[in-house]
User: Which sequence fits this backbone?
């Protein structure tokens, strides 16, 4: 399946098994979704369960919160992650706090899906990942996907979760093909990372499309690196990451987002705190520069950490046991 088809399959299987699951968002019904991630669902489940909405993210996200409290399991699609900005209050002040404010009496089994990331030529206003908008809110689970199988497994797990869950979908991966095991055995566990590649020389923690670029970089460099697909950002899998770094002695986090405020800072801080005395070298992050995502194809490709740049930094890191400068500093373009 393509990754977008795996998302359709996950929603289809959950809707078949649970009549309380419904979908709402802009163009999700008649058009089958702007990225065809709900294709065919209207025909099978009808307009009561697959609903096109007005162009008002605040309104239909709020409707999703209310529907979840009332007993349904709504899946709300945000076409581009940036559009979630006008509906953040519904999530961070509403959905994320209901269980706490009600002393556990009210649950909000809501899923919010959003396409994210660069690589598709959508320009600076439609190419960000913006996971830092939501990862710092207690009460929200934040997950992402990297392959068709993880898309299927994470989506089904998100729909079944009793609390509000945000699933970030790298749109550059929607067309990627891969095997998908459907059914109960294909469902993944939120909060649990996957080892995408075992290794012993160093640990790479990645998510979304940086899993693919990290694996390509390891192949190019010939380094025996362990690559962890984090999958869930909040809560992230401390046990898997710490166990890996305890074995390898080195940590590199690869992020698509700009350097400032990145999710990898939390992981580097935790590893440094827990494993400082046993580290062979300082942990560090490979990120995008602190700049808007360019529209120009060549510049956009430069923005996202490419396999060659990741391989360069990994090779230098292992050879010197010191943190290499990012390309924009090494080339004298910009100094932070």
Assistant:
């Amino acid at each position: 399946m393509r990754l977008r088809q795996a998302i359709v399959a996950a929603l289809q299987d959950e809707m078949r098994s649970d009549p309380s699951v419904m979908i709402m968002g802009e163009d999700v019904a008649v058009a089958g979704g702007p990225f065809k991630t709900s294709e065919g669902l209207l025909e099978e489940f009808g307009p009561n369960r697959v609903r096109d909405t007005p162009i008002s993210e605040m309104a239909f996200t709020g409707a999703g919160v209310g529907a979840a409290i009332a007993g349904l399991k709504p899946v709300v699609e945000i076409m581009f992650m940036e559009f979630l900005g006008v509906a953040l209050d519904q999530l961070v002040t509403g959905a994320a706090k209901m269980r706490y404010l009600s002393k556990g009496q009210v649950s909000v089994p809501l899923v919010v899906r959003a396409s994210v990331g660069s690589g598709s030529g959508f320009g600076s206003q439609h190419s960000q990942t913006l996971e830092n908008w939501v990862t710092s809110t207690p009460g929200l689970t934040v997950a992402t996907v990297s392959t068709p199988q993880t898309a299927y497994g994470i989506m089904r797990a998100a729909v079944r979760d009793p609390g509000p869950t945000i699933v970030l979908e790298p749109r550059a991966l929607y067309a990627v093909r891969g095997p998908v095991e459907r059914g109960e055995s294909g469902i993944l566990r939120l909060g649990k990372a996957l080892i995408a590649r075992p290794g012993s020389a160093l640990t790479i923690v990645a998510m979304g499309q940086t899993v693919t670029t990290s694996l390509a970089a390891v192949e190019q460099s010939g380094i025996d690196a362990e690559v962890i697909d984090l999958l869930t950002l909040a809560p992230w899998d401390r046990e898997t990451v710490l166990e890996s770094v305890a074995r390898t002695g080195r940590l590199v986090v690869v992020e698509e987002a700009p350097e400032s405020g990145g999710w990898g800072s939390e992981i580097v801080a935790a590893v440094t705190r827990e494993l400082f005395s046993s580290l062979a070298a300082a942990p560090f992050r490979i990120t995008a520069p602190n700049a808007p995502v360019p529209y120009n194809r060549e510049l956009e490709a430069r923005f996202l950490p490419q396999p060659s740049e990741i391989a360069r930094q990994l090779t230098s890191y292992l050879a010197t046991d010191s943190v290499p400068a990012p390309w924009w500093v090494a080339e004298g373009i910009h100094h932070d």
